[in-house]
Sequence to fold (539 residues):
Amino acid sequence: MERSYTLDEKLAILSDAAKYDVACTSSGVDRKGKHGHLGSSISAGICHSFGADGRCITLLKILMTNECVFDCKYCHNRASNDVPRATFTPEEICTLTMEFYRRNYIEGLFLSSGVRKNPTSTMEQMFQALYLLRVKYGFRGYIHVKGVPGADPQVIREIGYLADRMSVNLELPTGDGLRLLAPHKTRKTILTPMRQIQQGIAQERLRVGVGEKMERAYRMKELPGSIFNENNLRLQKRTDEAILQLDGSGGTETSRKKFGESVDLCPDNRVSMSGRLDAGSEAGGCRADGLASASAGGLVPWAEDRGLSYVPAGQSTQMIIGATGETDYQIMRVAESLYRQFDLKRVFFSGYIPVNEDSALPGLDTPVPFLREHRLYQADWLLRFYGFQADELLSEDRPDFNVLVDPKCDWALRHLEYFPVEVNRADYALLLRVPGVGVKSARRIVEARRNGRLDFPDLKRIGVVLKRAAYFLTCNGRQMYPIAIEEDVLTRCLTADEGKKRWEVEHPQTYRQLSLFDDMHLAMMPTVEDCSKAAFGQF
Fold:
């Protein structure tokens, strides 16, 4: 039950409650500073540092409230848990953001929330906070806001002009998992705002003249002469069962068994307007031209007057991994479909942290699947930047990654018919498939070999990771090591190299990420309480 707290106490409660939301992303926008306003959000402006416990600290990462009417079994803030409850007012969120920013503690705001009364009422309170920040306080820094599924589309539309990035959590990879652990939520209420945000971003691109053919990093372009052309063409044309399942627009009996029962997606669905703010009410003197001015389908007048863009950094989502029994294959199929059909910037994977005791959940002594989460992120990178498909990386017969090696090495070991690759002749697409060769190094190889033949020392200077690539490449017909190109032999070599990385990922309590203050011992990283006291002059 919520009681009266000081602002410092609220900050301690609600910043700790927000640690389960993933938000480590760069700004992705080029909004510079402006005279009379505070903050900027240029592309390189959100550089994340990490505290000793591994949490990102450059964004003020808070919940508006940890009260919630839902009772999701995996959530620390679920309605049935006896935890301290607190709620920020819109003005308090503005005060914290502005004071922390002025003292260079943060570079932006990450705002999420529990559902206090209903989704629409909650999102309206978040709108008030962001509107005050942008209009009353002139804040131009980076803002990432979590959308609440089930909220009225009108308020989601208006918030999109105040935030740089929006995200709606998918929560769990399949509909079956959602029904088991979060019965108050449905695929319909989650996917509807995601589709709305996607359509709003597309309309904004057309409005500013970008067009529909904007390059997407997660989809590989056709490469003339590549042995993978046929795969890429199939990727463009094939009907994706996973997204058909998500959208409820079809799917075979097999796909329904794999991905759960389908649901209907109704883009025009609107929930009740209970809890709506009156048109005449104000929030800090800046409410008169706020939500009451919304016009469905058209440009929001106050946003147009202020030159605001709609979600310029795009949208993302998050899935909890390990709370239910989905395979890596199912997860990657869903992620691939979300990228293709919802134009997402990122799909985040969050290893399940056991915080509640429930018969439907893994036991409290279950280790957090850090290594599995790490492998999924590596595979996600292959989908977005290397032209891989989920069906190439995994299959129904082999539905999980080999955690002993990274997914690219795992794929190479199962497709030795393509290897070894002659570095002086292979095309760009095939070079991208070689473990240890990245996008930049593949381009450098193509450019450098125009001036002469390359050898292994040249590859090292270019940036190729030879401890992996050496087993799959030849230079002028020679291998770096005279070793048999056989799966068992290469697996033993690669797992020896991966042993240290595996230990570091599986033992995060002994693994420290690079931090200027923590690792160089120049100063102690301030705690949340220290920051709040400094922000309000209590030192």
User: Anything to note?
Assistant: Residues 49 and 516 are 8 Å apart (CA to CA). The first strand starts at residue 59 and ends at 63. The chain has a mean pLDDT of 76. Strands lie at 59-63, 108-112, 142-146, 165-167, 315-321, 346-351, 421-422, 473-474.
